[in-house]
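Write out the bound-state structure for 3,4-dihydroxyphenylalanine.
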Amino acid sequence: MERKDIDSLLEKIEKLTAESIRDVEEIRVKFLGKKGEVTRLFEEFRTIEPELKKEFGKYLNELKTKAAEKIETLRENFAEFVEGSSLEDFTKPGDNFELGTRHPISLVREQILDIFGSFGYSVALGPEIEDDWHVFSALNFPPEHPARDMQDTFFINPDSSDPILLRTHTSSVQVRTMERQKPPIRVVCPGRVFRNEAISARAHCIFHQVEGLYIDKGVSFADLKQAILLFVQQMFGAQTEIRMRPSYFPFTEPSTEVDISCNICGGKGCNICKGTGWLEIMGAGMVDPNVLEASGIDSREYTGFAFGMGIERIAMLKWLVNDLRHYFENDVRFLKEFQSVI
Ligand code: DAH
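---
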């Protein structure tokens, strides 16, 4: 930077004229804005030799003050026209702009994570492209289990002896969490999952799940029940009840499928709950000791529970959406229904 650069810039500024208040604003941005010419000189100033700093600092400050004064003078020329003038009417209401909406799946996912967050669970994530170990083997799936079949799972390298696949559930993130973290563990794992299914109102090849995992000394089935009850009451309302039916999953023992009392008919029976008064919302159970051991956790010292739910299903029950495909088509008329939920 040289003295003449500063002088010539000052000269240029002094000569400026403006036709309107808009011109003044443009001038301000051009010279004093973030990328303005004066501002650029200040940036250059950082790199000049220390013994020149004092002198140039003074010139630069003068330049800036004079530029600001000049702009102020230009602005004053228009001040008297502002009120009631055709140039600018600052009392006019602002332009309307349309707000976007959050996708219902994002809304429900966030609500689920918030509720478990308030219980002290943190969020864990894992990859969508997984290996056989994290999706099946470590979770105690027997070798001949149908989920290991191409009919049900998308394999990336079907002929390999070391299969890579799209995860079919977020239970894989349980395994990854246990592998890298010592108990106590309290996590919820949201994510996309993939299954080789024909698309219909009730099934899709891509959907979302939230997995939960709690491992510590002395964790019992009663803790599982309590966590789920508190969760559903916050999600569906304080009057909601739960019912647990015995079930089977390779990775939990005992295993259960959890129903909530139908939030539409209050349990009396309607066409949503098919007259039963109950709606299924998740699978759960005590983590099988084989799963703990496979992930490096001593099953004599620790116990834990796990649960897994489909986000689409929770959202369908919450808002009475009757076709899963709505979530994926992004029809604005559907998405706008959730505008007020934000
Ligand atoms: N992974 C199961 C599924 O995709 C859901 C599930 C059931 C997860 C029971 C769990 C569990 O953690 O304990 O259908």
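---
The first strand starts at residue 122 and ends at 123.
The chain is about 40% helix and 20% strand.
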